[in-house]
Each structure stands twice: as structure tokens, then as C-alpha cells.
Amino acid sequence: MSLSHRTRNAAPPIQARQILVPRHIAPGQRSSRNVQHTVRYLDGLTMGTTWGVKIVAARHQPLHEIKLGIQAQLDRVVAQMSTWLQASTISRYNMVAAGSWHVIEPEFFTVLTAALEVARSTGGAYDPTIGEMVALWGFGPQAFEGTRPSPQQVEASVSRSGWQKVSIEPATRRIFQPGGVELDLSSIAKGFGVDQVAAFLKQKGFSDFLVEVGGELRGAGCKPDGTPWWVVLEVPDDVPSLNTRISETLLALHGVSIATSGDYRRRVFIGDDVFSHTIDPLNGMPISGSLASVSVISSECMMADALATALFALGPEAGKAYAERHHVAARFLTRTETGLRQSMTPAMATMLF
Fold first, then answer.
1. Is the CB of residue 325 less than 8 Å from the CB of residue 125?
2. Nearest-10 crossing angle of helices 189-203, 64-81
3. What is the CA radius of gyration of the chain?
4. Which residues contact residue 313 at a Cβ distance below 8 angstroms, ignoring those fewer than 6 apart?
5. Lowest mean per-residue pLDDT among 233-247, 300-314, 319-333
6. Alpha-carbon torsion 279, 219, 316, 116, what sign?
7. Structure pTM?
């Protein structure tokens, strides 16, 4: 498995190469060349996808315990935040009685707090309470019959959702279940998992590594030869090679993370219609339109993950306006009659080298 931010085989042809280099490199992240060290590779399965880690380490250093530790970090995220596990913290919260408070783990509380803040700042265009809507359209753990939900079902799911209904108590790590609210943190949990793995590796004394979980990445330090971890920004695979060509974009993943949200990543087919997995929390419908994908660069992969989804949900105009107001480094790819059109926010454009 490649750790490049995946470019699909059917992507539009390359016109030129763009290079993105973060302008602010964290102190102490430059790697000293060491001929005794090499890039070692570890991988595994998590969250219905794969994880992969490249580490700069001694050639014969045992890494079995490190691999187990990485898997344990990701397993902890799954045990708390996977709606696919009935015994997970989030599944138990989604099923409890109305009017009850529940103490949750520190990791879950961190992720939920961040998700609620993004929901607040986007006016609900991003919302972690869309679990019922996700299931309704066939993207949840429940068996899907392949039929389109009725307008009444969609309307009912919207009425039971709402990020404002979820009260939290930071001092006690308690969250309130008002009744009928179903949390879904799939748009932020993978990124958080990446951050947890990065923190674990730093704790174990590694300063140079690249972490990927399901296409979301975070890099630290450099390779043994002093060069950065280069990754290729993702391009949709369903746009024909027409007149407009998209430049291949390379990012030096040095002290930053990247995440992408797109309507081509996961879909459901209902009759002759195709629906994206990204749901508009305001109307309960899968998002459709000209926007193909949004990639976000941030210091934390958790925030890159959430913001990529939020900006995609907002759409090309409102999403870019939000990103510019909040100084988010983002790239928008929009479908046109002649192919893809690229637009970068100033925070990302300043990284062009």
C-alpha cells in the first residue's frame, strides 16, 4: 500500500507539478542523516480500512511492540467511537434513555468537543448528530434494503438530530442524551486516530515518521537522507480527461496533516441513482453538486478530517468563504463541463514553492 495521498488511475492528465511546502516548520523536526537508520514500514487494519506507518529507525531495531502499540491506539478509538460495534461507547450512548447523563472517556470527549465546535462555527453544516440520517441512506452498520427513504423518514431524522441538543460538562466529561440523538463521528475519528498514533510514536522516541489511516495522513521529521515525506494530493477518479487539466500537487508532509473529503469516496446505488455518503445535516439529503473534493492541511489530522467534511458540506462558495475567514489551508476541486477546476485558499497558496 502506498502512503501517497491517493491519486486514482483514471485521474485527469497532468499539466504541471505544484509543490506545497509548509512555511512554519516546528523546531526540532529536522532529521539528521544517519546511515544506520532506514525507513521501516508497519501496517494493519482498523475502522473498516487500512493503516500504514513509515518510521525512520535502526535497520535491525525490533518493531513488533511498536506495531502492537499502534494497533492498540487505533483499537481504543474504535472501542469508543465506532457505530459498527454495539458495545462501543458511542453505540451505547445512542441507545440510552432520554434525559440521561453519561461519563465518557477522555479521547471520546476530546473528539466530540472538537466536532461540536466545528458544528457551531459552520452553523450546523457540519453536525456529529447525523447518525440516523447516515443509516437511513445506507451508510451505517444496519442492513440496507436498497430503497430510497421517504420524505417523511428524512424529515423525522432531521427533527431528531441537532448538535445544539448535546450538552457537555468538561469538568466531569459528561454528555447529555436528550432522547433520539444518534452521534456519528466517522468524519473526525480517523483523523484523531492518526494523531493518537503520532503521539504514541513520539512518546516512544521516534521523531521521523509518516502515518496514514484510510487516506488521512500526518508527517513528522524527514527521511534518513534529509528529504521530506512527499505525498500526492488526491484527485477524483470519475472525471473524464477533457480540456481542463489538474496539476499534480505534491505536499511536503513535515509537521502537518492532510485529509480529503469527496463525493467519489463512498457511494450507495438506489435504482438508477447514485448518492454520496456526505449528508447535509440541514435537510437530511446526500450532498450533490459540482464540488468533487476538498483537501485540508492542518497541524492536527483530527481538525483536517473534520474541516474537509465541513467545507465539502458548505459547498464551493460558502466553503471557501469559511476557509478564508478562518485561515484554513484548503484546496477545492470542482467539476465543470470541461473537467476539473482547482481553487486554493490563500493559506494553502502561500505554501506553493
1. no
2. 150
3. 20
4. 122, 125, 126, 278, 280, 281, 287, 319
5. 233-247
6. positive
7. 0.90
